Amino acid sequence: MAPKKVLITGVYGLIAGAVYRHLQAQPDRYDVYGLARRPQRSERAPQDEQVVVPEEKFILADLSNYSVVEQAVEGMDVVVQLAADPRPDASWESLLASNIVGPRNVLEAAHRKGVERVVFASSIMVSWGYQQEDPYKAIAEGRFDEVKIDEIDMVTHEWAPRPTGLYPASKVWGEALARYYADVHHMSVPCLRIGWVNAEDHPRDERGGAIWCSVRDVVQLVERTIEAPEDLRFDIFYGVSNNRWSWVDIDHPREVLGYIPADSAEEKLGLA
Q1: Phi, psi of 112 (to 5 degrees)
Q2: Choosing from 20, 167, 238, 259, which is the catalytic residue?
Q3: Which residues, including other chains, have CB under 8 Å from residue 110's CB and lie 6 or more apart?
Q4: Over 90: is that where the pLDDT of 104 sits?
Q5: For residue 110, what is the DSSP state?
Q6: pTM (2 decimals)?
Q7: Residue 93 CB-half CA count within 13 A
Q8: In which order are the strands placed within the sheet that holds 117-123?
């Protein structure tokens, strides 16, 4: 069987770069391509880890340019849509180009060119509003003695989105777009609500550890989504590590994708 052709957008970003390196190391399984709007590492990516994309497999493109995007996705089996402006304080103009127009162009181009699957990177921040209420607020504020974690209701993919800013609202748009292309155009567009991944690959404290995801775990989640059965059309999966104070459901990605986090915030913090 020929290697699966995979295009990773935003390839010089933190998560995309890690996914690229992991897939590239398996040439018998993956033929990996990268797309970015500039050929340099993003400010969030680790400074000591290089992403080297061969010139013939790199596409320099802004996702707001539809014609270039269409050329980039042609012939791909899977597109991993990780390119975005992730800044909570990003301007509306930047979010419009990167997080609204860009994902639409990727999905429309993938539809027209017959790409089988687009993995859409969403964010745990689409559910940020739940932290305005206890018990989720208590976790966010570190009032752990007030929380019986084994008894709280986990926020699941079936709960309504509650974005608290334009960035997560743009991710809600992306998820709705994914549903449209799955239902109307019969594409496979699973969405990943990725937790807090950082260049240090380490939670800064126990509060932040509740929504932390290790680089190893997010890479596993993306690969398992790439390899999910063909009949997976649309679904939403939270992507966090196996953290003690996590308030989002990771049973669903375990049951559907076989995702089993290898890391936990408590282990990283020496609290396990």
Answers
A1: -70, -30
A2: 167
A3: 73, 76, 79, 118, 181, 187
A4: yes
A5: H
A6: 0.95
A7: 0
A8: 58-60, 30-36, 4-9, 78-81, 117-123, 191-194, 236-239
CA distances from 61 to 30, 70, 209 (A): 22, 11, 35
Q: Which two tokens stand for residue 64?
A: 């707001």
Does the annotation mark 259 as catalytic?
no
C-alpha angle 101-4-121 in degrees, rounded to nearest 5: 35
Whether the CB-CB separation of 168 and 233 falls below 8 Å is answered with no
CB 249 within 8 A of CB 138: no
d(CA 60, CA 186): 29
- Per residue in 34-86, pLDDT tens? 999 887 666 666 666 678 899 999 999 999 999 999 999 999 999 999 999 99
* C-beta neighbour count of 163 within 10 angstroms: 18
| 8-state DSSP, 186 | -
List CB contacts of 96: < 8 A, sequence separation 6 or more.
none
* Site of tokens 């596409």: 59
Q: How far is CA 194 from CA 15, 99, 119, 166, 197, in A?
A: 10, 15, 12, 17, 8
CB 257 within 8 Å of CB 237: yes
Helices (H), the chain: 14-24, 66-73, 92-95, 102-113, 136-140, 166-185, 206-209, 215-226, 251-257, 265-269
